[in-house]
Amino acid sequence: MRLLLVEDDKALSAEVAEQLERHGFAVDTVFDGVEAAFMGESEPYDAIVLDLGLPELPGLDVLKQWRSKQISTPVLILTARGAWHEKVDGFRAGADDYLSKPFHVEELLARLEALIRRSKGVAAAQIECGGLMLDEAMQRAEQVVGNKKIPVELTGIEFRLLRYMMLQPGRIFSESHLLEHVYDYDSEKESNVIEVYISRLRKKLGKERILTRRGQGYLFNPEKP
Ligand code: CA
Question: Is residue 173 located within the same domain as residue 199?
Fold first, then answer.
């Protein structure tokens, strides 16, 4: 899952980005409204965290601009302006959620995870498909065998990749699409890296969990193999 974090307080931005990355998100950070507007339009984020008080262009205007251009990425406003009428303005401008500073990182994470699940059409509180469950807090998978759950440890990228695919089981993702959603803008991307991680996931979870569609990409098998 890839996030855009728009926050002009650089110390806060670095702290929040680090926490989000530690919890399995790829994060791009921008520090003013103009750059935010541009990045939100041009990169395929799974969610955006938006501060309102920003240099160059206010956050509310950035949000209105995205919505007028049909950018439907879920947006969570994170701001010190927590009065009820400011929240109403935020929602009317197209926000999906609102969190006032100061805040607990756990709450931000829980809200983001819920927002993203919902935007991908997942109603359940946990990502689960075909006898495989994801523990987002522990960043690992659990194979359900009989009435037992067998944990499967995952590396950071394996977890990101699996979580992304499991949110839309049965949907085919190209390698470039997966690259854009598990890595941030600045990271070095080797051309065969997705192939490598898919094969590692198959070794851990069983070959039939992730299927290949030649010339199209990969999909998480919605059927229990
Ligand atoms: Ca600010």
Answer: yes
